[in-house]
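> forwarded from #structure-qc
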């Protein structure tokens, strides 16, 4: 096997292991926070900004009936709030309660972020740009494959 093929296979194996650990980290974090992994996934999606309930369901890959349960649970423990869309009163917009997530959720992930930042300090700006480019391509691939899996 060529060194390039070995490098690619090694990188694919590292991605697989990282994905397994990402799932394990989410499970452990959700347990520590006291919610389930789907609820944590939805909190993560909402960290980019408010979403309608239907947008949240679509991005999370769950039904609108399921997202109602997620929102109910997260609202009951104070992590999100529902508000009527000012432009379309039929729509519900879900947003994070920043104070509550900052006090309960952020500390769970702070050590991970600190460790990532420390690991990144070993790379040049150019290497960081390359890694970011690869991860952006990986995100696009995941998005495409998720869509393909859901529409087949």
């Amino acid at each position: 096997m060529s060194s390039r093929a070995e490098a690619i296979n090694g990188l694919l194996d590292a991605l697989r292991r990282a994905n397994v650990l990402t799932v394990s980290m989410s499970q452990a974090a959700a347990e520590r926070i006291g919610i389930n992994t789907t609820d944590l996934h939805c909190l993560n999606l909402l960290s980019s900004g408010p979403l309608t309930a239907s947008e949240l369901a679509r991005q999370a890959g769950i039904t609108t009936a399921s997202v109602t349960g997620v929102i109910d649970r997260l609202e009951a423990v104070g992590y999100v709030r529902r508000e009527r869309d000012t432009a379309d009163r039929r729509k519900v917009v879900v947003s994070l309660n920043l104070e509550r997530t900052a006090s309960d959720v952020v500390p769970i992930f702070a050590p991970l972020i600190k460790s990532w930042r420390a690991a990144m300090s070993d790379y040049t700006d150019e290497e960081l740009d390359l890694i970011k480019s690869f991860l952006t391509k990986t995100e696009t691939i995941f998005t495409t494959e998720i869509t393909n899996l859901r529409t087949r």
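QC bot note: The radius of gyration is 18 Å. The chain has seven helices and three strands.
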